[in-house]
Amino acid sequence: MIRRARLYKTEAIVLRQRKLGEADRIVSLYTPNYGKLDAKAKGVRKTISRMAGHLQPLTRCAVQLAQGRSMEIVAGCQTIEAFPALRQDLERLSCALYAAELVDRMLPERVEALATYQLLLDTLHRLEAGIDMELALRYFEIQLLGQAGFRPELEQCPACGSALLGGPHRFSVTAGGVLCRSCADGDVEARPLSIDALKALRLLQRASWPEIARVLPAMSREIESHLRSYIVYVLEREVNALAFIERLRREGKGLPVEV
């Protein structure tokens, strides 16, 4: 007797999708209780599909999944939030796609991560509302790095363990944090980090969002540059979403942008 597949329901944020065969898609979902998982959406590329609109990237949805042999199968789906403002503004869209790709690339599959799900959802809400997008992304980046096990060391030198006192400081992606003066001399790839940027990074790492939004000034390109370089080092690859959005800007594509 063939055993019937077990059905279960979960909330999810659609990270991305890719084509499968002539009519299907594989959707990458991030869920609060099951972590990241792929699911087959059968017939979703057909014009008569009722699920297609509910499985677009950057959609928060309630899905019913059936356990298959190799991956889950989407048995039903309903949109909870579609974040329409993200799809009507190129800058917000680029930020949201970037956040989704980082979660997809940085987190392992099928590992429960309620905190990371909430972080991504909160970030989408902030981007949807148009709240200081650069600040929202910097907070997202450093919190995600910590939750994924790549927390940059900002309090003591990762090379020798000594406390970071005075300056000047240098950030090393290979060492995973800020080096003291003596250790920085031996790291030719370490880059200068100002004291103001170090203080801001520390605040981003340890404070809650309400505290950050209330006291932290506008983010500098210096902080962005260091975090992005570290993320690329951790991922061992460039982030596709950033290159995609930059290409759209160079080509002068108009709005809205479909994803």
- Say what the CATH topology of the largest domain is: de novo design (two linked rop proteins)
Shape: elongated
Rg on CA atoms, Å:
20 Å
The average pLDDT value, as a whole number, equals: 89
Strand order of the largest sheet: 1-2-3-5-4
The share of residues in helices is: 25-40%
Give the tally of structural domains.
Answer: 2
Major beta sheet summary? 5 strands, mixed, barrel
Second CATH tier, the architecture of the largest domain: Up-down Bundle
CATH class of the largest domain: Mainly Alpha
Determine the strand fraction and express it as a percent band.
15-25%
CATH superfamily of the largest domain: Recombination protein O, C-terminal domain
Unreliable sequence segments: 1-5, 254-258
Secondary-structure element series: EEEEEHHHHEEHEHHHH
* Number of continuous helical runs: 9
- Overall number of strands: 8
**Would you tell me the structural class of the helices and strands?**
alpha+beta
Distance between the first and last residues' Cα: 43 Å
